Amino acid sequence: MSAVPTSVGRAATRGSYAWKKTLPTLKPRSNAAPTTMQGIDPSHNQPMGSWSNEQIGASVKENVMLTWAPSKMKNNLPIITHGEGVYLWDSNGKKYLDWTSQAVCTNGGHTVSENIKSAVAEQLDRTPFVYGGMAMCEVRARLSNIISSVLPEGLTGCAFPSSGSEANEAAITMARRYTGKTKIINWYRSYHGGTTNSLEATGDFRRWYIQPPPGFVKAHNPNPYFFEFAGATEEEKTEMSLLMLEEQILYEGADHVACIMLESIPGAAGVLTLPEGYMQGVRALCDKYGILLHLDEVMVGFGRTGNMWGFQHYDGVVPDIVTSAKGLSSSITPISMVAVSDKMMEFFEENPMGWGSTFQAHPVAMAAAYANIKEMLSNDVIGHVQEMAPIFEAHMKECASSHPSIKQYRAAGLFGALDIVSPDGTQPHHFNAPRTEATAAYAKAFNEVGLIGLFRPPVIHIAPPLIINEAEIKEGFEKQHQALDVLDKALGY
Ligand SMILES: Cc1ncc(COP(=O)(O)O)c(C=O)c1O
């Protein structure tokens, strides 16, 4: 029998056995701040619109941060004082035509109708807020109902987050919970939002900003950047890209893929209109393998491309999940939507969605969206877009044919993109690269000629408010040509 070990002797200690404390001590800073207007700069009591450019500029410099761009760029942004129709004015009195509806979202332009104003004011009078998990309000029932009415049959359940990113976040969670599967397939050339899952669903460079959450699989778009799918005809190319997608599903394991989540027409990536038959093929693959189809309509929903929904360009295709935002309220209030199939709705009658937010189903945001949709329908905005579309496309074509710096154009409704090309046939600029001298010269000229809009080289997006008329389209393209003349020269043509 081995001896039972005796207790281990402690060596002689100096003082206590424990080590001397090392916790740092706080270097105190005052955390006091004013709690009444008394401690606040008295200029805050002046009416809105009365601060000078210098006052605004000083606070912008000190206190304002940008998001996707380095913040110091804020100091060069115009200070917008007011807007009317498709126009905006800055604090120096300069007038701009809003050539991309800001972030492809101010679809109704910059004049808010009396109907929408009174709908918002009325909701503020009734009750500005009730929490969506605690109480219902009439506007929520009405908005859900009207959205379900403008969607194809079978898409019945609606929820209202505050941004497109959140709508996609909710949809991703719902797809996973409904199917019990985890993988989501998205395209490389895509953008789905800035929150964690939505950003990982994104294919463009913005995805690189985060630590990737698991479960997102990237597929090539049917229109990749540097190559084309093999085949003599568009039909054959479509078939090739679908076969590649099917193979990817098989190797990811159909039993693991919850959802294929795509933009109906990728917008930020450059209005990538899809080859004939492609989306029908994706729907058929989803049905074959028990995968949900989620179409992201955040940018193209509510009439941008001449149909209420982008997916209505694809005969016979009904998604299981639709997300949208932007045009839902014409961006008067921050609101987005997720709509799901009746089967999914039934599942979530018994199960929590797994997503939530204090501001989801915000009554004031919903009141603006509800009034906006009714106004869109009453004024037949979609009919107007269809009428303007051929005029818009003729101008897009003219840009591509008359400027050597433009390789090609794509257009759908009032949504268009021009691809910039260098004299040697390459792209002058990749998406994530800082601006080159040529693209910076173009951006400066674009503002100088009186246009304001997004610019994500090597693509030039054109997406004016949907209420634009023929004369304003002509005016916008005249200015666009002037800016493109500068680009032609800057690129060395
Ligand atoms: C297709 C698409 N999905 C999602 C988003 C994200 O929407 P939000 O910026 O409202 O979060 C965008 C924004 O541009 C988008 O274009």
Name the poorly predicted regions.
none
**How would you write the strand order of the largest sheet?**
4-10-9-8-7-5-6
Q: How many individual β-strands?
A: 14
Overall pLDDT, averaged?
95
**Approximately how much helix is present in the residues?**
25-40%
The secondary structure category is: alpha/beta
Order of helices and strands: HEEEHHHEHEHEHEHEEEHHHEEHEEH
Could you tell me which ligands this complex binds, including any ions or cofactors? Answer: pyridoxal-5'-phosphate
Could you say how many structural domains there are in total? 2
What is the CATH architecture descriptor of the largest domain? 3-Layer(aba) Sandwich
- Rg to the nearest angstrom? 27 Å
Strand content: 5-15%
Distance between the termini: 96 Å
CATH superfamily of the largest domain: Type I PLP-dependent aspartate aminotransferase-like (Major domain)
| CATH topology heading of the largest domain | Aspartate Aminotransferase, domain 2
How would you concisely characterize the structure shown here?
It contains 13 helices and 14 strands. With 493 residues, it is of the alpha/beta class.
Report on this model:
With 493 residues, the protein is α/β, with parallel strands linked by helices. It folds into two domains: 82-111 and 381-490, Aspartate Aminotransferase, domain 1 (Alpha-Beta Complex); 127-378, 3-Layer(aba) Sandwich (Aspartate Aminotransferase, domain 2), CATH 3.40.640.10. Helix content is 35%, strand content 14%. It has 13 helices and 14 strands. The strands form three sheets. Strands 4-10-9-8-7-5-6 form a seven-stranded mixed β-sheet, with helices on both faces. A four-stranded mixed β-sheet has the order 1-2-3-13. A hairpin with a 2-residue loop joins strand 1 (80-84) and strand 2 (87-90). Helix 3 (114-126) packs antiparallel against helix 10 (363-378) and helix 7 packs parallel to helix 8 (278-289). The longest helix has 22 residues, at 381-402. It is globular and about 90 Å long. Pyridoxal-5'-phosphate is lined by residues 103, 163-165, 168, 191-194, 263, 267-268, 296, 298-299, 325. Pyridoxal-5'-phosphate binds next to helix 5.
